Amino acid sequence: MTAQDMAEVFHRIALLLELKGENPFKVRAYKTGAETVENFAGDIVALAAANKLAGIKGIGEALRDKLHEMATTGKLEFYEKLKAEFPESIFGLFDISGLGPKKIALLYKELKVAGVADLKRVCENGEASKLSGFGDKTVVKLLESIAFHEQHASEFRLGDVAPVAEQVIAALRDNHKVGRVEICGSYRRGKETVHDLDFLASSKHPQEVIDAFVALPVFVHTIAKGGTKASVRTKDGLQCDLRVVSNAEFPFALNYFTGSKEHNVAMRQRCLARGWSLNEYAITVSEGAEPPPPVHEERDIYRALGMEFIEPELRENTGELDAALHNTLPRLVELSNLRGTFHNHTTASDGAATLAQMAQAAQDLGLQYLGIADHSKSSFQANGLDATRLRKQIAEIRAMNEDFDGFKLFAGSEVDILKDGSLDFDDDLLAELDYVVASVHNVMNLPEAEMTTRIIKAIENP
Ligand code: DGT
Ligand code: CA
Ligand code: CA
User: Fold this and answer.
1) What domains can be seen in the chain, in order of their start residue?
2) Which of 44, 258, 381, 421 is the most exposed place for a label (fewest CB within 10 A)?
3) Averaged confidence pLDDT in the chain
């Protein structure tokens, strides 16, 4: 079991205990435990196996034993038993907004609702609206949530799939039969969410590359497999496609499979205007047309069209081709442009590192400043700071700033916006801060107009 697997077991235990109506503190302990395991800096699996987890904040004795059991046996008896009390599909209900553990438990007990499909059925046939606490309005909201869920069910967040993408790229690079390797599609374009991952490799032995790809341990299912392409799935349901081409075809395939489709269509039209037919393998020159300069790299395709190289993030056919032609492409923000960041927590509230550790880590990253914005007192579940603790932190930050060279900490706060739009600290204290992040953390269900007034009032705080 990996640390991620162990954290997932704790997350699921927390959900199941909530379903059973167990003590909230017990539920909280598993949620905290899951987060601690996820964020742990060292090799928590090895430590758990060796029974060396004593003294780690966020992991009490009961959880420590469970981690040891998972690290040594690969499963957890307690979880297996708990899980057997409910159908597996019930976890899907937690992804539907508007449904909490109490409602899910009721739906399961009264109407045998065991998953999203069942939920949709009882909402549509009127059974749900007869349950206590489930008026017609609730049911309409639930149906909207289900529709939203269905629409986005096949989307993955870029950051969530990045580890898989990097792992697969690394495995392909290690393969001696592989020449060039890239990841294409929406991932390369840096979209916030992607539907699948598109890998591209060049090789003289495509079949061997395909065989090695589908056999990678991250993949649990093969959807399709041929001589030059394959589609597989990870255990989280993420589809990964691989296409293997020759070295000469690689730049064309890279361009084609990076997309977007709209960008490709526009590129093909520009080529046609010069008598060239562009596809995923080559540019074919029609009779009488001037041939393009040789293409070895993807940028050569753009050069052939008299264009600057267009970064993948810009390839959505929203004016980038004309801009590339006239040398007016915008410069993208790069990691080296990042000088600091403002929304950071420390162990004073619910962060994983101390103020001193955060300051050191920021300097190690080459940042010039770091803003500290721990939670405020109303976020008690996140151990938010009250006025006394915040003033102490401000003083600490000011004192630390005396010693830095070319680096600065800013004293801020992530202040709760209260129900009426007022802020969680009085104006005198807010004025002592360098900046404020204001957030809504509770009473999320106000009508639209009231919520808007609430936010505007917060923004207008002097
Ligand atoms: P996704 O997977 O929905 O997040 O977005 P993409 O852009 O990765 O789309 P995908 O995986 O279906 O296809 C990868 C690329 O292949 C796409 O960006 C452009 C190219 N492509 C796919 N279908 C077509 C098509 O019908 N025409 C053209 N010109 N290009 C296509
Ligand atoms: Ca894709
Ligand atoms: Ca694809």
Assistant:
1) 3-83 (1.10.150.110), 88-151 (1.10.150.20), 156-247 (3.30.460.10), 251-325 (3.30.210.10), 336-459 (3.20.20.140)
2) 381
3) 95
